[in-house]
Structure formats: C-alpha cells, structure tokens
Amino acid sequence: MSLDGYISPIASLPLEVLLDIFAICTECPGDELILLNLASVCRYWREVILNSPLVWQHICLDDRRKIEASHAQARLWLAHSGSLLLDVHVQLTSSDMLLPLLSPLVAYISRWRTCTIAAEREEVTVFSELTAEGIRPHLEQLEIELRGAEDFMGTSSSTDIGGSPTFRSLSSSYTPKRHDVAMHVTMCELPDPSFLCPMRLTTLSIAETSVEVTTDLGRILRFLTALPSLETFHFSGWWPHDGSPMPPDALPVAHLPRLQTLFIRNTCIVRSLLAHIDAPALTILSLRHTNIDFEVRHDTYARIVEEGDSEDEAHDFSQSPWSDRATGMGLRALIRRSNPPLELLDMDYADMRTKDFRWCFDRLDHLREFRIVASDMSDTVIKLLSPYQSTSKCVAEDGSSFEEFKVTRVRLPMLSTLDLSFCQRLSGDAVAAALRSRVLLTDAIADNKTCRTLVHVSIVGCSDFLIPHAVALTPVLGNRLHVS
C-alpha cells in the first residue's frame, strides 16, 4: 500500500480541537514542561503553541527544579499567555520554597483564576470566591509564620503549609477596580533574596511562632531588600532571646523609602533592627513588650561605643536597664540615619533611659501622639514636656553684630495626644505641673502649622496621680482630660 499523500489523523484535526488537546495536556501535574516538549514535535505544533495564549494558561511549578529554571518558566508562561487568566499549580517538597516559586507571579495575581498547592495536603484557592463579582484580586499583604523544624515534624512534615488558608480576602479593603487579598505562608527560615523576584507588596508581617526559632536579623534585613514598595512592617518575636550574634557592621541596611508604619514586638533585637533600617518616610513606630529584666548573653554592641552609649547621667531607677539602653540607642540610630517625620510613637512595655527621652524629644518635631504603657520614666522625663527657655540670636543685616534674646519653646511642638498608662514612677505633682504649664502656653500660641496644643490627655493607672491632681488640671484641660 502506497503512503504517498497519506495524511495522519492528527494532522487533519481542526485547530480548535488540537488546542483543546494541548490545553488538557498542560492540566496534568507531573510534567510542568509538557508544552515545550509538544512544541518540539514538529514545526506546525511549535507555531500553534507559540501563537496560542490559551494553552499557556496553566502553569505548574515544582520545587525539585532549580529555582532559576522555575523563574524562567514563570516568565515564559507570563509572556505567552497574554492577558488571559492563569491557573497556578505548585508542587512542594518543602514549604520554605512556596514564596520563592510564586514570587515572579505575585505581581500578576489579578490574572490568577485558581492556585493549587500540592504538598502533604492539597489546597485549592478559587479567587472568584475571595473577591467581589467582577473585581480582580490584588496582593496587598504578606504574612510569614516562622516555625522550628520540630514543629513541622509534629504535624505532617516540612511540606505542611499550616492551618491558615494561604490566601484570604481583606474584605474591608477594596475598590471598584480591585479587591485586596492577603497571603499567609509558613516556613522554617526566610528565603534568600537571590531566590526571590522583587515583589510590590505594601504590607509585611513576620511572626516567630515557636521557641525553636532563633531570630536571624541578617536574613530579615536581606529579605526586606526584595520588598522595595513596603509601607507597613510588623515583626513579632516568640521569646526574648539573643538572636544570631552577628556584629552590627556585618549587617546590611534595608532601604525602605516608602515605609510608613513599623511595629516591633516581643524581641531583643530592637537596637539592631532600628539601626539597620533606612525609613525616611516613617510616621508610625510601635514598640511593644520589648522590656527585659536581664542582659542577653551575646550582646553584639557590648564592645561598641556609639554616641549616647555612656551611662545615664540621671541615674533614674529602671527595672529593665539593658533593654532601656538598647531601645534608646536603636531609636537614636533610626533618627540619625533617616530623620523620619514620626507622628505617632507607641511604647507598650518598652522603655528608654532618661537621656534617650531627652535626645528624642529634642528631635521629634512632627510627633503628634505619644503613648506609653508601664514605663519607669521619672519626673525628669515628664518635665521635658514643660516650656523651657532657649537663647536665640538676631544678626544685623550687614552681619556686623547680633543680639541674643530668650525664647520660650516646647519640645514635641506638634504633640496633640498624650497617653500615660501604669507609669508608677511618675509623681502626680510633676505630671500636673508639666501639663498645666504646657497647655497654658500652647493654647495661646498654637497655629496647627508650627505648634499644636493638647486635645487629648489620658492618664490611666498611674498610682500617684490622684484626684487633687485631676482637679488642678481640669480648669486648663477641661474635657480633654481623661483619668482612670
């Protein structure tokens, strides 16, 4: 029988049927490069595949391949799929690799139709179920949960992706054009930036959730470099410990030009972290549960002397002298490097030395809200809020002479909210005197541009602030004073 002119059955298939076959082939996990294999069969198939975005909608990534190869694969699929929706499939042997594998794709999450994560268990996210009808998702927030290796062994294995869903809706945050979602990942350690593509995320939280985790500040700072658009950063430790003893001069500086909000909680690395973040746009700083009543074993600053490292000349009492010094020196370093326009400083079981309060109050000219809980701050600190006299010079137009004159000023000139809670070392007399003298002046001179007056004062649980002190302040503050 002659084969001349013979046409194989598959060659006679309509193009639409052939494309359907190719699309079905890509949906079978286990061969993430099947499209490339099909494209190598013949020139016709290659032309069909390379010019048909439909068959590039399903992308399968496997952490057993080199990360560089997976990133190249992701870029290839993105380029050939046009603007069509994507079905993302991730095959994991280690949960640490989930974020590196997805990092080239997160900028295009608005095109994701589904995401399947196959590990010890399989999780399928259908994005149309997370967002309002007709509105595409936008990845706004990344939440990283750091666990110890022992914790994974206690569940299923290192591929366990945690009990929380990987993606969830931020229902209170959406616009007619986009619906924000959060991504939650569980891992043993943060990935190196070389494993990541830059991600345009605005909110990051890192939480250590196990005593097995040792804080690795160097890795945290390097990870932050992959997030140049970060606006909010939360870091929460699990237990106050030394962290990795890396000398300060060996740590990188994370440049975060858009960072506006920084929360640090339950950790001993406050000084090192604040000293190695460049945040010139920072407006909110919250330090919580960073006081400790012991000195860490491996203090990386023990043999380093910086301006302000000397003993506090005030010699005021403190239950947490080591952490007071660390917090104060960290805040000094942040202000020196970035000079941020801080508007809110929140300190809850976080404290500083008297000399650090003075240094910071002299420089925080934009601060509007100061909240402090359980501080050992002394009367010397609260008196810093009183008006004080400074000397100014008036130079003649020809520069031949100048005249000195006294000017009454206040520190923290934009302060409008003051919350003092459970500050047991403060005397009621000092608080009443400082606030009375300040408000009498600022009520008269406040212009809301260079100076504000106090509009909210809350004094809670300060044992020496008694009824007579509240009575003395009432004529000045009126209903602006809240005492409990």
From TrEMBL:
Ranges of residues in domain F-box: 10-61
Domain of life of the organism encoding this protein: Eukaryota
InterPro entries in the cross-refs: F-box-like_dom_sf, F-box_dom, LRR_dom_sf
Protein name per Swiss-Prot or TrEMBL: F-box domain-containing protein
Spans traversing the lipid bilayer: none
